[in-house]
Design goal:
Strand order of the largest sheet: 1-7-6-5-4-3-2
CATH topology: Alpha-D-Glucose-1,6-Bisphosphate, Chain A, domain 4
Largest sheet: 7 strands, antiparallel
Radius of gyration: 14 Å
Number of domains: 1
Number of strands: 7
Number of helices: 3
């Protein structure tokens, strides 16, 4: 199994990140404009379905890819928030890829891009979600 792992840090507040990763309005500002949610399921671009789970007692949110591109099925995305001095650290990963395929490489690059979009959204109010993103 292969994993995608990224880390960003800044002086933003954890509650700003929570809003950006846990709400349809937040996700639509940095990841993809087309988002629909129910209590624990997120539908992105009418293709990808994720089930959101909060891990008790720690600042970890994870999802299972239930449908979408074949290589995403049964991968696990996580957002882990920790405080470090005056910064909030966001660790993100997409774990359990079957192989480091060309699509894996593409997604790894795009996750870096979208995490920079998240950082920009939190800092300035303006991200670059899918459809406004840089094509690679």
């Amino acid at each position: 199994m292969t994993d995608i792992l990224h880390r960003i840090s800044n002086q933003f507040l954890a509650r700003q990140i929570y809003q950006a990763i846990l709400s349809a309005s937040g996700l639509s500002k940095w990841w993809t404009k087309e988002v629909r949610t129910t209590s624990q399921v997120v539908l992105l671009n009418s293709v990808l379905v994720l089930r959101l789970q909060k891990c008790p007692l720690i600042n970890l949110y994870s999802t299972n890819a239930l449908s979408g591109p074949d290589e995403w099925i049964n991968t696990h995305l996580f957002f882990d928030l920790t405080a470090e001095r005056n910064n909030t650290i966001l660790r993100f990963g997409q774990k359990d890829w079957k192989s480091a395929s060309d699509f894996y490489c593409h997604c790894n690059t795009k996750w870096s891009y979208f995490l920079h979009s998240l950082k920009s959204y939190i800092e300035t109010g303006q991200g670059t979600p899918f459809l406004d993103d840089v094509k690679i």
